[in-house]
Amino acid sequence: MTDPVPDGDIRVLLVDDQELFRAGVARIINAQDRLTVVGEAADGAEAVAAVDDLAPDVVLMDIRMPVLDGVEATRQIFAPARVAARATPVRVIVLTTFNLDDRAATAIRHGASGFLLKDATPRMLAEAIVTVHAGNAVLGPQELTTLLDGEFKAKAAVPAAYGQLTEREREVLALIAKGLSNAEIGAAVFASESTVKTHVGAILRKLGLRDRVQIVVFAHEHGLV
Prior knowledge:
Rossmann fold, globular, 5 strands, five-stranded parallel beta sheet, single chain, transcription regulation, 11 helices, Arc Repressor Mutant, subunit A, Sig_transdc_resp-reg_C-effctor, DNA binding, 2 domains, alpha/beta
């Protein structure tokens, strides 16, 4: 029987086909305040099942694995039926050995909150987990733009839901897609940070998106940047 997870801790699932790597990362995470590893998986298929069974807050997902790779596992984790069945949201951080990995871009398109290189420091790893748990991305706006511009060479038609946004909400969406924080957006549109948060919430609700990362993906997919 595993020890109970302390109240308020961020629950982490490790997914990698190398047992030694998982063991090392688990030690790093469990040594951090408010972070607890609740399970491990050796391939993408195990990861999808573990997310359903363990309800982690954040998944560290290796991109290249046998049986089912991290891209397909991410797609299945964020399948609409699975998302609707969850009581709490789950975030995915893709782990890769290559910077600006095209597979990482596809995983982000499927719902991942960004990627982290496997040689990241323990501090970077811990900060990334906390960051995505809060609904933010773990890569800079320029990196995200570079990845997604290559991913969406052909722009999709803007969906009807976009027409529900007010002029100010469209302005805020464009600024989010450029990587601006709520404080920076507030300064740009002469509004308080709390007002910007209200606009962001309305954008997410009207477009049926999960977080700011998905707003960026939406903007690039439909040529709104």
